[in-house]
Amino acid sequence: xxxxxxxxxxxxxxxxxxxxxxxxxxxxxxxxxxxxxxxxxxxxxxxxxxxxxxxxxxxxxxxxxxxxxxxxxxxxxxxxxxxxxxxxxxxxxxxxxxxxxxxxxxxxxxxxxxxxxxxxxxxxxxxxxxxxxxxxxxxxxxxxxxxxxxxxxxxxxxxxxxxxxxxxxxxxxxxxxxxxxxxxxxxxxxxxxxxxxxxxxxxxxxxxxxxxxxxxxxxxxxxxxxxxxxxxxxxxxxxx
Length: 240
Prior knowledge:
Calcium-binding protein; 18 strands; 2 domains; mainly beta
């Protein structure tokens, strides 16, 4: 069960702390968003895979190890203004007695904070869920999880417990980008198009505003129009 919660600061460990790996740990830790402290969020299933890997050089033999984390299969997490978004987190780790429990924290800009935990399905695998919400419930003014200021790079902290009672806390073992959804609309006129005649193409790029729950103009973007033969539909493209 994932939840949007007030911060706990640096997470405690019953065993040993390990340093985050150099790869995939780019984001600074954030502070919690106070207005989302009591909101529970549960939706969908996410696999947190704890795969066997080699221990760091400074880890004693037999201690649990967390090696890294991948969020949403390496893709950005993109959130609009109408639906909850569920995404997977994959954490790598190992222990000679087998891993029994995992606690994962996501920390983002301006206090963004999510946490979830789960019992392991086997000695090397656990299943949990993360959900983000940028829209109020229909007909209500309940607080939501996200504001525009929370968009950006988020980091992943992981606390893993082993069957022998050992545990390890690994800060910043992964990172991911949380982005506001954007939409592009394009129209060509006049229609029908006459061969050799001039047409005018108009369009609009908008981006989700998590503060107002609306889409607003997304200025300063570059748009490329690609035309194909009649057998295939034209594909408008844009880049941030």
